[in-house]
Specification:
Layout: E1 2-5, E2 16-19, E3 29-39, H1 41-47, E4 64-72, E5 84-88, E6 97-101, E7 105-107, H2 114-117, H3 121-134, E8 142-145, H4 151-162, E9 166-171, H5 174-182, E10 187-190, H6 196-203, E11 211-214, H7 221-226, E12 233-236, H8 251-256, E13 259-262, H9 265-271, H10 273-288, E14 296-301, H11 305-313, E15 320-324
Parallel strand pairs: 8-9, 8-11, 9-10, 11-12, 12-13, 14-15
Antiparallel strand pairs: 1-2, 3-4, 3-6, 3-15, 4-5, 5-7
Protein name: NADPH:quinone oxidoreductase family protein
GO molecular function: oxidoreductase activity; zinc ion binding
Organism: Ramlibacter algicola
Length: 326
């Protein structure tokens, strides 16, 4: 097998495409022939030694991928050789083969393409957990999605619409906003133009959004929180903007009767596996019904992983980048 190996987590340039022994699954594991893998923001942080999970060296990055089960370890009964699966295991995806814990693999229904499956679990699970579970989003409420043209942002738009909400998408360019409208956003805001608070006020008839979905952090967090509706819920999903993590004056939640809500889907899936499994089954059903579908910016050969990292760093990506073998 071949894989991109991280032997020194000092950045993308240190990754090397290497010939490695093909692994055999241990008890509770499966070996997967990888067909496609997607690039997520944590995949950048982990090779820079900036992610909260620090795997032992050396490791193969690539948190999310899809492929075919080639071998099963002892005790694995719900998966079989030849079955198509998607997996989110944190590492291992940027190669031709990997072994993964079987309980982290999602069996794919018939007709679920590998490219979509490789871009599905992280963004849709995060966004569903955020909006449906943590925010308790109700039909008729208004959701403001920041970073709306990215992977989790596009998933959040689709999930909020499936839940019956009105969606305002905020992004940094007109082409990104056009994408957001094409997948269901009811209104859009370019937060690089004009006064953001004024734009939010105009888009919500002065009420403010009931729910804010924020995977970005950065300089817009405080003005957006100041614009939230009474009893609003501000979802802290991530900090893709980089730099300092924003700090909010604690009187703001008090004055708005609002909630600052943390979203950590990874720990939710570990602590509440039954609830997570039910959520993933619902999402698979929504995909089959056409309610959700990953937005794929482009598909590149696995050999062009470093190019994909560069594209992600340029902030020009709309939706997800997917790498394929073969």
């Amino acid at each position: 097998m071949h894989a991109w190996l991280c032997e020194n987590p000092v950045g993308v340039d240190a990754l090397q495409w290497k010939d490695l022994p093909t692994p055999e699954p241990k008890a509770g594991e499966v070996r997967i022939g990888i067909q496609a893998a997607s690039l997520n923001f944590p995949d950048l942080l982990i090779v820079q030694n900036k992610y909260q999970h620090k795997p032992p060296l050396p490791f193969v990055p690539g948190s999310e991928y899809a492929g075919v089960v080639e071998a099963v370890g002892e005790g694995v009964t719900h998966l079989k050789v030849g079955q198509n699966v998607a997996c989110l295991s944190g590492t291992g995806g940027f190669g031709t083969h990997t072994v993964a814990p079987a309980h982290l693999c999602m069996p794919l229904p018939f007709g679920f393409p590998f490219t979509d499956a490789a871009a599905f679990i992280m963004t849709y699970a995060t966004s569903h957990h955020a909006l449906v579970d943590r925010a308790q989003l109700k039909a008729g409420e208004t959701v403001l999605v920041l970073g709306a043209a990215g992977g989790v942002g596009t998933a959040a738009i689709q999930i909020a619409k499936a839940a019956g909400a009105r969606v305002i998408a905020a992004a940094s360019s007109e082409d990104k906003l056009a994408l957001c409208r094409s997948i269901g956003a009811d209104a859009t805001i370019n937060y690089t133009e004009g006064n953001l608070r004024d734009a939010i006020k105009a888009a919500t008839d002065g009420k403010g959004p009931d729910v804010v979905y924020d995977p970005v952090g950065g300089e817009y967090a405080e003005p957006v929180f100041r614009s939230i509706a009474w009893r609003g819920r501000y979802l802290v999903v991530g900090f893709a903007a980089g730099g300092a993590i924003p700090a909010l004056p604690m009187n703001l939640p008090l004055l708005k009767g609002a909630s600052l809500v943390g979203v950590f889907w990874g720990d939710f899936s570990r602590r509440e596996p039954k609830a997570n499994a039910a959520m993933m089954a619902e999402l698979a059903g929504w995909y089959a019904q056409g309610k959700v579908k990953p937005v794929i910016d482009r598909v590149l050969p696995m050999a062009q992983l470093k190019d994909a990292y560069a594209l992600m760093g340029s902030r020009g990506v709309k939706g997800k980048l997917v790498l394929v073998n073969g």
